Amino acid sequence: QVQLVESGGGLVQPGGSLRLSCAASRSIFTINTMGWYRQAPGKQRELVASITSSESTNYADSVKGRFTISRDNAKNTVYLQMNSLKPEDTAVYYCNARPSGRNYWGQGTQVTVSS
Predict the structure, then answer these.
(1) 11-63: per-residue pLDDT in tens?
(2) Is the dihedral of CA 84, 89, 91, 93 positive or negative?
(3) Which helix (H) or strand (E) holds 24?
């Protein structure tokens, strides 16, 4: 079992930045893949970024060059640094953990990009 708690969401103007945090209830060192997904109103949940235990990263085309995923194993935390935010980034952002054979989700944190 892995409990995930997201934080750091909020309201930001276009072009601004936010850093999301995902705190896990146990060590993430051995979790193969940690990731961030988002779901906007009326749309399906989509992968934003992921990072493996070997720190290989993957990003959705829409956020490449703007978002950075990272992990701090000592703090059992995964981060998503979001820069140059656009209105279309508005969504609920969910942390995801994929230890082998399992899949866990956080409760989500709202990100709203609006002037």
Answers:
(1) 999 999 999 999 999 998 888 899 999 999 999 999 999 999 999 999 999 99
(2) negative
(3) strand 18-24
| Whole-angstrom distance, CA of residue 28 vs CA of residue 8 | 20
- Write the CA distances from 27 to 16, 32, 55, 74, 108, integer angstroms: 31, 12, 15, 8, 20
Q: In degrees rounded to 5, what are phi and psi of residue 44?
A: -80, 160
pLDDT at 41 (0 to 100): 92
- The residue behind tokens 């705190």 is 23
Phi, psi of 89 (to 5 degrees): -80, -10
